Amino acid sequence: MTGQWGAKEGRDPRRSHEPAMVREVTELLGGRERVLDLTVGAGGHAEALLESGVRSLVGVDRDPAAIELASERLTRFGSRSALIGATFAELPSIDPVDGVLYDLGLSSMQLDDPARGFSFREEGPLDMRMDGEGDSARDLVNEASEEELARILSEYGEERQSRKVARAIVRARERSPIETTFQLTSVVASAVGKRPGGPHPARRTFQALRVAVNRELEELTVSLPQAVELLAPGGRVVVISYHSLEDRIVKRFFRDEPQLQLLTRKPLRPSEEEVKQNARSASGKLRAAELTGEAA
């Protein structure tokens, strides 16, 4: 049973999301004076960083449920932690920090709650909004033109059959609005088919809609330069991404920003042991860079 932003009954959402690459994050940012966690989620990375000796941590998240959960998890650190509800393109006005962390993508606590509408494996309303504001995936699916849907699916989901899927969506909604995740899943599967043993046919469509609804790539592009401006000299920015679109933005920014020195020539990947324990970390790529010049 779920509420609008709740988690499944009997599951502790603070533990259902296992943060990825905690060891690598703490090796890069642990023990620093001030760290800004721009995707605090349920507080897993923040907790590990505070335990590692970080003196002060500010956590940011656009999801009200995440802020509530992180607050519960970090309460034992008292005034050493502070939480702000905002997107990571709305950076708070704070003093320079010694580290900035992004853990991009979708958390398990969001994915596992059918009421959020993120999962093609769970029946629920077609929502996908991380903060509950603005147009939902339902609005996009039922109101965008076929051309716009095809563009979104191709650009944000790298769906090779984007035109076929967009056409199928438009035809289906002419009969009746597409309201739920399973309705959309059925439309996509009927359009592209399903290969035995292959990935779910709706996987790329759901990714594309989520990225579009939450303006994830635009937010990241705006946020990265702002994060660098907040760094003190010698400060580090660490980004964990989970699909090629995000990673490409981070890679190019780190390469082209003259104030940054790469700490990871190639992205770090989760260990085999971690993937066995937390399968959702498998696609993670961690990149890190350090501010070498004077802070802007």
Task: Explain how this protein is built.
There is one protein chain. With 296 residues, the chain is α/β, with parallel strands linked by helices. Residues 1-15 have low confidence and may be disordered. Helix 2 (22-29) crosses helix 3, helix 7 crosses helix 8 (162-175) and helix 7 (146-157) packs across helix 10. 42% of the residues lie in helices and 15% in strands. The chain has a 7-stranded mixed sheet, sandwiched between helices. The chain folds into 2 domains: 13-109 and 216-291, 3-Layer(aba) Sandwich (Rossmann fold); 132-213, Putative methyltransferase TM0872, insert domain (DNA polymerase, domain 1, Orthogonal Bundle).
In spatial order, strands of the major sheet run 3-2-1-4-5-7-6
User: Please, what is the CATH homologous superfamily of the largest domain?
Assistant: Vaccinia Virus protein VP39
What is the count of helical runs? Answer: 13
What is the count of β-strands? 7
Query: How many individual domains?
Result: 2
Task: Pick out its properties.
DNA polymerase, domain 1, 296 residues, single chain, 15% strand, disordered N terminus
